[in-house]
Design goal:
Strand content: over 45%
Shape: globular
Structural class: mainly beta
Number of helices: 1
Number of strands: 15
Order of helices and strands: EEEEEEEEEHEEEEEE
Strand order of the largest sheet: 8-7-6-5-4-3-2-1-15-14-13-12-11-10-9
Distance between the termini: 16 Å
Radius of gyration: 17 Å
Helix content: under 10%
Length: 239
Amino acid sequence: MNHRTVSGRIRYTSKKPEMMDRERGREWFAFTHHGDGWAILRARCEIEEPEPTVLRDIVYALGPNGRPNDLHVHLTVGDAFMGTGWLHQGDGYVECESFGPSIGRLSQRVDYQGAIDGFGTHPIVGDGYLTSRMDVSKGPHRREMRVFLPSPDHRGATPPMIAEVRIMLDYLGNERVSVAAGTFDCRHFRFVDESSDGMGGKTHPPYDMWVTADADSVFVQGGVGGYMATWYELVELDR
């Protein structure tokens, strides 16, 4: 079969004084890179802190040249079913079919002009992969990233519905980074929320990440400051 798989695990730890360096969650992921240019991301995320807990399963399909095609998400919050949904990008529109106890059965369509960079999936590895849309050949610079998400909540802990977010992404240069999974040549990026409304009505704190400096764009390490005070590290990688 003409495909290649990249899989691994990311550990979530806290940087809050009362929980310094304690594990607060984890994520398992797998990319399947197909011979025809398609890529499929599967991820399972567990967040234990802060309450309520979050358990998320996603499947994200990207066509050739990284064009987002469809995203499926199943969400459990506080050990209770929150919702399930499917997003799809057509020519100039994004549609959503979802269901949840608080929203019932929902169908949405949002038309847009211009281009988008991807779907915001909420798994950490998806954040890293989104940076592959940055043209690093220009050297360190900043540009706006435009994404559609199934939830504007910073943890993705609301029923699946279409939300558009624009956020700035800085490319800061290359660094060599060592983590539990090994030592990697990485690109250093930083997401900066400069929107007047923030994400879901709340400004997202600056988010630094280091991503492998190759076509796979695998998240290696990173952290979010401010009220979130969290750190993420790649602890297993198989490719």
